[in-house]
Amino acid sequence: MLEIRPLDAYDAPRLAELEKILFEADSPWTERDFTEVFAQPHNFYIGVYDPESDHPEKLIGYAGLGILGPSGGHECEIQTIGVDPSCQRQGIGRMMMDNLMYVADELRAPVFLEVRTDNQPAIRMYESYGFSQVGLRKNYYQPSGADAFVMVREKKEHTPS
């Protein structure tokens, strides 16, 4: 049974390891990068753990949401999302997206992100959550020089029960 829980500095070594695997050509985050982001109170980071995994840390997926702006006027940004390649295509990315979107919906906040223009599986997933392309950032990812689409999901209006 997969578990989802908040990430902290203890997870930084495994996160950096996954970053090297997933984003080798585009300046993967380091342990220090993750430690610094966890120290910020406006960030919400979660991890998916598989108690049955062969990897000692058992962390197989991670996602982060930055929460920006004043109360009542929040905007959110998906800062990162990644799944161990051996565990992809099993719904783990969607599990994390469900959690990130729940937080954004509770805040009644729009959500922004950048995604490589050649990452069709991620683009399709984001579109299924209501994201649309609103811009293009040329040479966004470095050092590869890959372009990124800017995507946004408008805030969900709260409907009283």
UniProtKB/TrEMBL annotation:
What Gene3D superfamilies does the annotation carry?
3.40.630.30
Pfam families from the entry?
Acetyltransf_1
Q: Which residues form the N-acetyltransferase domain?
A: 2-156
What domain of life is recorded for the organism? Bacteria
UniProt keyword Zinc present: no
Per UniProt, the keywords (alphabetical) are: Acyltransferase, Cytoplasm, Transferase
Q: What class of enzyme is it?
A: transferase
EC number(s) from the headed UniProt entry: 2.3.1.267
Q: Which GO terms describe its molecular function?
A: protein-N-terminal-alanine acetyltransferase activity
Would the keyword Amino-acid biosynthesis turn up in this protein's UniProt record? Answer: no
Q: Which family does it belong to?
A: Belongs to the acetyltransferase family. RimI subfamily.
Q: What is this protein called?
A: Ribosomal-protein-alanine N-acetyltransferase
State the organism of origin: Corynebacterium felinum
